[in-house]
Amino acid sequence: MVVQGGDRPGQTTLDYNKSVLLEEHNCYEFRRQKIVQMMIHAWDGYANYSWGANELKPLTNRSHLGSVFGRSPLGLSIVDALDTLYIMGLMDRFEVGKQWVKDSLDFSKAHGTLSVFETTIRYIGGLLSVYALTNDTMFVTKAEEVADFLLPAFNTPTGIPLALVDISRGTSQNWPWAPDGASILSEFGTLQLEFEYLSIVTGKPIYLEKVNRIRDYLQQIAKPGKLYYNYLNPKSGEWGSRFVSVGALGDSFYEYLLKAWLISDKADLVAKQMYDEAMAAVIEHMLFVSKGGLTYFGELKSSYINHKMDHLACFIGGLFALHSVNDEEAYNKYMPLAKQITTTCHESYVRSRTHLGPEGFSFKNPDKEAVALVGAESVYILRPEVVESYFYLWRTTKEPIYREWAWDFAVAYVSDAIEKYCKTASGYSGIKNVYDENPDKDDVQQSFFLAETLKYLYLIFSPDDVIPLDRWVFTSEAHPFPIRFNGTSNFAAFNSPTQF
């Protein structure tokens, strides 16, 4: 029987549905390939003008080293981007980067102070992710070499690491700007996944012991209102100033509690309990709805609420979505919050002239909600957190709006966005004012643009079996690690970038 239902005479409903699906597939495949072209443009510019340096300055075609890595040329963009190249199937470029890692990545040559946190999430995380994808143990060896240089930072009375290491001198210190010699929650609380996985793949317990000592200390320390403050003195073991945020200084600590539970195949119940209690506390004390109906997290400073949200905090919409689909009891509470907060972050983009989001946005003025009120917060530095939440909400809800928002962000076909304002002849640059129709560029192609922003964009337009969320967990730097089913450290060696 022929059932009429298509647009053309004689077209069956089945034929029509097939044609719609094919059209949709072709549309998203086109978009996916556009993101691949963006990755090629960014990578090739770096390779042509800054190879072996940390990042590209895409306006002046010079090298950018970055103070958090001691201003040493350590191939940051290579290591951070390798798994993105592999996932996208850009194998020629991947092999060139892999060879550089094998021949040239050497932290013994680093000088100045390096951030323990940034080195962990970008280098150790990037190397271990490529190992997980390829089963090439060279990457484990390199990750172990890097981690060993960081270990002196953990030699404190509490086990809470210092923020910086000077490899050439074998010394450690905290950031000079941190109050009262404190370590930062988002830094010492975001080492668990990388160090734990490194212990698993090397068989050496020292790395896991270091991060478990951090967790043990945080679990037992008194927490007023069950809140984790952003500053903790590693010598006295006491909290510093009464400042709590899910944005800068706090953000990824909360992320890693949930993800430690997920990557253990939900066996790490201590991490889950800490996450549940921490989230309940920040929701109770710091979650607000503006007069205009936008849901956001403020910042708690002593008893004062700063009604401002960081771009960095926009990751939490995606985190709540991930939590919702992995915890049936949490779904009705956290999925609506995931959508509401991500909508707020989207509004921070569409309320700018460029349709790019500011570094921070305020709710203090009801006539200018989700808008930066301070000039320094008007910058956009290629950050991934908003598109990261689009990715998780697309994967968990299948609501097409998140794909459309991602496309608007990436390409100026529908709105003014990253291709129009950030692209240069050799790469992509941050901009200094998202509210300016002709913004100046900051001349830095951040490594996380290749590691995170472009990866999440690519995955939004990819089938769900490309890095499926029931088999992989993304680190804070968007490096995928395998879930440890039944306690195993890995589940396959992949010989093709299409086999995930």
From TrEMBL:
Q: In which pathway does it act?
A: Protein modification; protein glycosylation
Keyword field contains Glycoprotein: yes
Please name the InterPro entries in this protein's record.
6hp_glycosidase-like_sf, Glyco_hydro_47, Glycosyl_Hydrolase_47, Seven-hairpin_glycosidases
GO cellular component terms, alphabetically, are:
endoplasmic reticulum; Golgi membrane
Superkingdom is Eukaryota
Membrane topology designation: Single-pass type II membrane protein
Q: State any GO BP term from the record.
A: N-glycan processing
Query: Which cysteines bridge via disulfide bonds?
Result: 314-345
Official protein name in the record? alpha-1,2-Mannosidase
Task: Look up and give the organism this protein is from.
Answer: Trichinella nativa
